[in-house]
Write a structure and sequence with these properties.
Layout (H helix, E strand, L loop, with lengths): L5 H10 L15 H16 L25 H7 L1 H14 L1 H20 L3 H6 L12 E3 L2 E3 L1 H15 L8 E5 L5 H9 L4 E6 L1 H14 L5 E2 L18 E5 L13 E5 L7 H8 L2 H4 L3 E7 L24 E8 L7 E6 L2 E6 L4 E8 L3
Helix pairs in contact: 1-9, 3-4, 5-7, 7-8
The structure holds S-adenosylmethionine.
The site of S-adenosylmethionine has 17 residues, from helix 7 and strand 4.
């Protein structure tokens, strides 16, 4: 039987996930993700009939904000009442933030164009991706902050030739699978492996199974110590719960990546990933994270991880730079007793590595 609604997709995923509701038992979980995982479980328990309507943008997890804009597509996605209310609120109280947000979106689009990825923006209108609720029409192009991030990362992967034909790509912290959806579209033979909490993997399954119903979806109950990532079918999509990472940790893959995620984890968890063969032996790693997760002036995350934690002796750096995406973003918040528009407490780097003896 084909599953169709988001609720059915969610139930199907849970049925194939023996430890779905056990993620809060993990040791060393940072405070942000303790809150998010608890919120997700509460959301699923309270809204069993509606799971998935807001599976991309909910609670503390969102597709990142976009400026106020009235469009029929936005009102349809948000619902008329909520759409008008959000637009009214932002137009009245968020003018400065929205001006900056618009500039950031313009910059992100311009730098993707500069890299030659403009057609990826045009071929993938943000508002048409499944479950999209936050998007913005910028000179006729449909974008969102998070979706532009995924377009940029895909373009960089292509420029640096990180995805060999029929290769295996493992991404830790894959969220709702937005980047995976783009990679699978343009590199249909890549075998995609995602590592995240169960609730995120369920969201990714809801998203990716709508886009690629006929792909082989490998569920958590098929991820055990015997799994061989290299033997998975071409184009398959595998959902590995963070708690089961050990089942794949000693394998060598073509690409291992982590975006905006290791820098939020406590050091033992971050090191657990960085010291696995997945990251130590991969033909390439691609990381984009904060230079400093918790600067003393504003300790944003509950961890002392910094850029110094991401390099290993047996690997050489092929590419290292400031991540230009969202670079000039300003968020209004209080620091040292005053509330005003401020840059993030740390910029982000991007780094691509290969084994040193290559
Ligand atoms: C800020 S989001 C970034 C998502 C995505 N990589 C992106 O760039 O849009 C962090 C992601 O890391 C995941 N995450 C946090 N702690 C994790 C852990 N210990 N193991 C695996 N994933 C984790 C979160 O659930 C979330 O999907």
């Amino acid at each position: 039987m084909r599953v169709t609604s988001n609720k059915e997709r969610f139930d199907n995923f849970v049925a194939h996930s023996p430890a779905f509701f056990d993620d809060l038992d993990a040791d060393n979980l940072d405070k942000k993700h303790q809150r998010i995982v608890a919120q997700a479980y509460a959301q699923f328990e309270a809204a069993t009939g509606r799971v998935g309507a807001n599976y991309r943008s909910w609670g503390e997890q969102s597709d990142l904000t976009v400026p106020a804009q009235l469009s029929s597509a936005y009102l349809k996605a948000q619902g008329f009442g909520l759409g008008i209310a959000k637009w009214g609120y932002r137009s009245l109280f968020r003018r400065a933030q929205d001006r900056n947000l618009r500039h950031v979106l313009e910059d992100d689009v311009a730098l993707i164009d500069e890299l030659g990825g403009g057609s990826l923006i045009d071929e993938n209108p943000a508002h048409l991706s499944p479950g999209a609720r936050e998007f913005y029409f910028l000179k006729g192009r449909s974008v969102s902050m998070r979706f532009l991030r995924y377009v940029y990362l895909l373009k960089r992967m292509e420029i640096e030739a990180l995805l060999p034909e029929s290769g295996v790509w493992v991404d830790v912290g894959s969220y709702y699978g937005g980047l995976q959806g783009l990679v699978r579209k343009y590199h249909p033979k890549t075998s995609i492996v995602m590592v995240d909490f169960h609730h995120q993997l369920a969201r990714a399954y809801i998203y990716l199974s709508q886009l690629f119903e006929d792909a082989t979806h490998v569920f958590p109950d098929q991820v055990d110590a015997g799994i061989d990532l290299r033997s998975l079918p071409e184009g398959s999509i595998t959902y590995v719960p963070a708690k089961n990472f050990d089942a794949i940790a000693d394998q060598k893959v073509d690409l291992a990546s982590n975006f905006f995620s290791f820098g939020e984890m406590r050091r033992p968890i971050c090191n657990g990933y960085m010291d696995s063969d997945i990251f130590r032996k991969a033909s390439r790693t691609y990381l984009a994270n904060r230079f400093v997760s918790a600067p003393w002036i504003e300790p944003t995350y509950d961890t002392d991880v910094t850029v110094l934690d991401y390099q290993r002796q047996e690997r050489k750096v092929l590419y290292f730079d400031t991540l230009p995406l969202h670079f000039f973003l300003q968020i209004k918040r209080e620091v040292l007793g005053t509330s005003r528009m401020r840059n993030l407490s740390s910029p982000y780097f991007e780094m691509i590595t290969a084994p040193a003896e290559m």
